[in-house]
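Section 5: illustrative case.
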């Protein structure tokens, strides 16, 4: 019996944005969820891993905040 791999092909893209411009890095951050077209959405959206990585690269180039693929 083969064991299942630990990777999941579906992910979410989250951008953590500082709540204030003059606050230190340890301060609270706002979480923004992004959809497969690179636009902010209200609820977390699941998407294929390659699409999530492509959207994350585009958002990281904009220097909005910390980009995470969950």
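Designed sequence:
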């Amino acid at each position: 019996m083969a064991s299942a791999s630990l990777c999941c092909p579906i992910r979410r893209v989250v951008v953590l944005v500082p709540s204030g411009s003059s606050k230190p890095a340890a301060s609270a951050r706002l979480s923004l969820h992004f959809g497969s077209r690179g636009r902010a959405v209200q609820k977390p959206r699941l998407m294929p891993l390659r699409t999530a990585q492509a959207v994350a690269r585009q958002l990281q180039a904009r220097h909005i905040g910390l980009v995470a693929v969950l």
